[in-house]
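As a warm-up, study this chain.
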Amino acid sequence: MNSSRQWALVALTALVMAAGGFTSYRYWLAALPNVEDEARGYVAVALALGRYAPSEVDSYFGPAALQRMPPQAASATLPQLSDQVAHLLRQVKRSQSESPEPRRARLLGKIHDLQRVIESLKATRQLSFDKQAQQLYGIELAGLELAAPTQLLTELDRLLPGRGTLVDRMNLWRQQMLIAADRRAAVFERALQECRLRTQQQWPLPSEESLQITWTRKTPAAWHRYLGQSRSQLQINPDAVAYFPTLLSMACHEAYPGHHVQYLLLEEAAGESGLPVEDTVVLLRSRQSVLLEGAANLGVELAFSQSQRLAFERDVLLPLAGLSVDIAEKQAAIGRIEDQLATAILPILRDYHDGRLSRDVAVRRLQSDALVPDAGALLDFTSSLGAYVIGYTAARDLLRSAITDRVAANGSTAWAELKHVVEHPADADLPFLIVEKPK
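Now compare it with the structure written out below.
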């Protein structure tokens, strides 16, 4: 769309809203002539939701003009937002029935995601954990194995002999694995460099791609934000990379081949025309976002096999961190058990979210059953975002299984299949409905 037409649409929107309030916005939507304008209508409603509930919109890197909404839109109520998205959905469905096209079909999937989020916010009672997983993300938790095998705790007990409870001994071990504050940035940046190298060997990266790292205590852990044009910003709390065993995973998850590269792939798949405007607004609680969380965690496994990770941490990262290389094998074994114990987390979070466990009991269970180091922070995350946490565990496991099947069926590689899923989530034809394929 040329700039004069873009500004005409913005001006028209402002006039309509100023004349009749935000509810009149639907009459402008009703006159949208093509899929580009329908997509901009979707972005406008999504950004208005971001004004109402800022945590629901993870990022936006589209036209600045669409962010300049009049006061009526900026102060829209939830019922008004619900009205807008319902009206937009009806129009786009009608347009698709009259003039079908792939872009509009994908847009319908995004509008459905937006509608689900708004309806979940409108609900007088919070959806249960399982209902959120199913309705918002299309994942059925009932059939998944969510209990941590007892033998994992037995094996960990053998690796950490001594007095006190297993939780006490695990906490003591973690203290020994802390990186000094003045070394954390250097260790993380070296890990990031290796993650990038291994990713680039599989997926060629644009020559102009860049990742800006900002160290700040204003973010709880790490937050990636894609800025467009192959650029990302990664904000990191130094305390989030203090524990050595999680540092390499964070570098891969947030950047290479994780979130930063995921958006590079999406832009590459879009071709010379660039990403369509509807893909420049990222809803946090959406099926695609949960899919990308699972894909980012799976990417860690592809970038480093267990033996490769052990060698790199032993030979490069441990010395750089000022930690003894003699503990490398023990650390790797404990780290693998910690990762497997993640299956014990979801049942506890589910029961806490649904009111069957008090906070104190949930904290004790997370510490004893899953050996979670900062149980309180995890409960706060669940209180805020509910079942979104399944992206890091259940979505990863389901995606791993699906990609394994696709590799066997297609004679391809896991890297190739993961790339396809990231680039074309709605067309990936996965055997589970993380991303709903629009009809």
